[in-house]
Amino acid sequence: MGLNSCLYECVITHRRLRPKAYTFEHRMMMLYADLDELEAIHRGTRLLSRDRPNLYSFRDADYFPTGAPGGLKSRVGTFLRERGIELAAGGRVRLLTLPRILGYIFNPISIYFCSDAQDVPLCAIAEVGNTFRESKLFLLPRQAAQSPSGHARFKLRVPKHYYVSPFSSLDICFDFDLLLPGRTLQLHIEDWDADGKLLDSHLRGAQLPLSDYQLLRFALKFPALTLKVIGLIHWHALQLALRRVRWHPKADRPELQREVLNPVPAARGRGHVH
Distance from first CA to last CA of the chain, Å, rounded? Predict the structure, then answer.
């Protein structure tokens, strides 16, 4: 199709360091979609549709629920403009995410990589989700120096102030270190408290073309992937609970749950393990 959009075959690794060590690793796929190409993807693939049921589907309404008017790219542009970053005409937004699979969606994290009309990277936005169906946006600045691989790099350490995992307190910090996707994908996120690093997460992947062949191959290799993700979250939560890792109820610190999109009452749902 001659698209900039592509797929990544990935390995995700989580390593909890304290208070009790716990590590897991899983394989998965992710979609990297240029938001200007969504209609071309819809027309050019039989297995991935926009706003229609299919094996894979992409719905603007699943993302960035800020309440701003317009489609997904417009909402991203409004968010940036309110923070002094002008996407401008011809600017690009590329989204790394899991689409709906068999009609079901769940994304622990989606990343928007934003560039200007000359395709010079400006910033990234991390949309972090939890199993309450809440989300929170984190704006990641581009670093002046590129990574050793030559890719643009986006870094931020910021207080979490958001209920993600019931095994992590709300006042720890996220430390994001992301590289602009290319032939490879490299994302690194850590959790830190006053005593040091608590957890690190790595997502690494290899680029593949966005085609019906690859989509079908992934459907067979990673069947019902989004359902599998939510199932694994609860499985790993059980493992941590059996290890008697401290549980933090959502209702404990509502004042530390800030700038949350689609907030829900504390009595519902569970946070995801990461």
Answer: 36
